[in-house]
């Protein structure tokens, strides 16, 4: 459980820090970033929002571009941003931006050559929170959020672990991956051809089967070029409606898939999570 | 005066847009970015804050990382971010990150091989505002701000053109370039060996010679690794004290040279400019 600090910068009275560590689950060195609000201390541990980023991203995109720290500092919430996949020369990869390194899809791969390293589900659910809770002044209270592939990750991980998180939110999530090209390509490679295996990592399928125990907030820009072919939030809404799950899906007029969109609404997501973390 | 739109994204109800245009002053194609707040319209032209970035930056660094748009949208202020130098295969360059492309220092070069293209002072003072005012719903009211090399640019341009701007602000400016390695290297290359020529582009020297007609706000992190060797804000303070210029220099404990620092205080800078733009 050794971590190595590689950068730190004061921001809004708190600290943004990056660390590397050897991941047992992913069998490679990994990097993550954490924002600690000014009021975090061993005598005052703070709750954590885990942020899962989208295709091609690292721990840096959200931290640099989302503009989240003003409100997180005010609310007293830590934010942890992991990388989006295992990485390194010894880790399997693909030439596409949507498979392999930078595209872990937050699942546990069962197929070769991916299974050895691509276990992002276990990393996010188990290894990373243990590491964070052992090394930083944070409580065990957690919420989870993400964007695009990371929105898919936040929804599926939150839905499958409703006892571990207080709330789920997502921007522009891949809501029904078994029905879209990004999801079908990744799931075929990582999980094989069994659609039943795929359904374990599809938030619309998970919500169809059971009412969510957690409140969910989703924002989606209606000028997002990926909306109709890849994201399909209507499937998530239909699944939530089946059992009356607590989903708020907001279509935001004129917004696209970028961090300009995320920055416009991240304050509302953090206040949503705070309401449930401090309830 | 033709401009070509190359990107647009809705953000905080306004728009971030990037454009290219052929610059007569710089004799090359240039890119700039503009944020237009939601209330900007031909019947309601808004004032503009010009943001000048630091070494190695483009129009994108501030727009992606500063977190400025929430407050700019609320205040009804446009922000224009130009590139930091002329660029292109036909434009002179240097292997150093602190000379040539990405390092224009907001001056008019007089020496070869720089003089043909490196006329950033005239571009920022004259050509760019004319282009902006001809193409967007903005008024002629302007303030100017910047970071590091761009803080030097904002201070020198504002001090030399106090009839064009309402207020000046800077983060971590190169405050006394004739006395620091970055400034001495760039000024020797662009302006030759005459220290009298250098003093025309040194904000501490300009303030020494005359009281500033404009209010100035400067924030400087005291954990900034460039503070003592390159930035030297004490020289600016001493010059302001000579004639009672309206300079507020704030040393911010624990902050470094990064955009995490800028994002923490950009709201106060925008409210400072708004007070003078809407006075």
From TrEMBL, chains A, B:
<comment type="function">
    <text>Serine hydrolase involved in the detoxification of formaldehyde.</text>
</comment>
<keyword id="KW-0378">Hydrolase</keyword>
<feature type="active site" description="Charge relay system">
    <location>
        <position position="257"/>
    </location>
</feature>
<dbReference type="InterPro" id="IPR014186">
    <property type="entry name" value="S-formylglutathione_hydrol"/>
</dbReference>
<feature type="active site" description="Charge relay system">
    <location>
        <position position="224"/>
    </location>
</feature>
<dbReference type="GO" id="GO:0052689">
    <property type="term" value="F:carboxylic ester hydrolase activity"/>
</dbReference>
<feature type="active site" description="Charge relay system">
    <location>
        <position position="148"/>
    </location>
</feature>
<comment type="similarity">
    <text>Belongs to the esterase D family.</text>
</comment>
<dbReference type="Pfam" id="PF00756">
    <property type="entry name" value="Esterase"/>
</dbReference>
<keyword id="KW-0719">Serine esterase</keyword>
<dbReference type="InterPro" id="IPR000801">
    <property type="entry name" value="Esterase-like"/>
</dbReference>
<dbReference type="GO" id="GO:0046294">
    <property type="term" value="P:formaldehyde catabolic process"/>
</dbReference>
<dbReference type="InterPro" id="IPR029058">
    <property type="entry name" value="AB_hydrolase_fold"/>
</dbReference>
<dbReference type="GO" id="GO:0018738">
    <property type="term" value="F:S-formylglutathione hydrolase activity"/>
</dbReference>
<protein>
    <recommendedName>
        <fullName>S-formylglutathione hydrolase</fullName>
        <ecNumber>3.1.2.12</ecNumber>
    </recommendedName>
</protein>
<dbReference type="GO" id="GO:0005829">
    <property type="term" value="C:cytosol"/>
</dbReference>
């Amino acid at each position: 459980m050794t971590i190595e600090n590689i950068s730190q910068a004061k921001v809004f009275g708190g600290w943004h820090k990056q660390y590397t560590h050897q991941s047992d689950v992913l069998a490679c060195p990994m990097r993550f970033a954490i924002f600690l609000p000014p009021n975090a201390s061993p005598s005052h541990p703070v709750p954590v929002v885990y942020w899962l980023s989208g295709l091609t991203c690292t721990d840096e995109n959200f931290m640099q571009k989302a503009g989240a720290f003003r409100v997180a500092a005010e609310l007293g919430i830590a934010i942890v941003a992991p990388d989006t996949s295992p990485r390194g020369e010894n880790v399997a990869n693909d030439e596409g931006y949507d498979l392999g390194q930078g595209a872990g899809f937050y699942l546990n791969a069962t197929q070769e050559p991916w299974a050895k390293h691509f276990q992002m589900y276990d990393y996010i659910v188990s290894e990373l929170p243990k590491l964070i809770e052992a090394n930083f002044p944070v409580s065990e209270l957690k919420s989870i959020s993400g964007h695009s592939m990371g929105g898919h990750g936040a929804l599926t991980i939150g839905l499958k672990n409703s006892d571990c998180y207080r709330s789920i939110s997502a921007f522009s999530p891949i809501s029904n991956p078994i029905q879209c090209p990004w999801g079908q390509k990744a799931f075929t490679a990582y999980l094989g051809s069994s659609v039943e295996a795929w359904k374990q990592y599809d938030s619309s399928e998970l919500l169809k089967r059971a009412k969510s125990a957690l409140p969910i907030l989703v924002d989606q820009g209606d000028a997002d070029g990926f909306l109709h072919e890849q994201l399909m939030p209507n499937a998530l809404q239909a699944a939530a409606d089946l059992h009356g799950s607590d989903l708020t899906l907001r279509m935001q007029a004129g917004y696209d898939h970028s961090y300009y969109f995320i920055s416009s609404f991240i304050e509302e997501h953090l206040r949503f999570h705070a309401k449930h973390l401090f309830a």
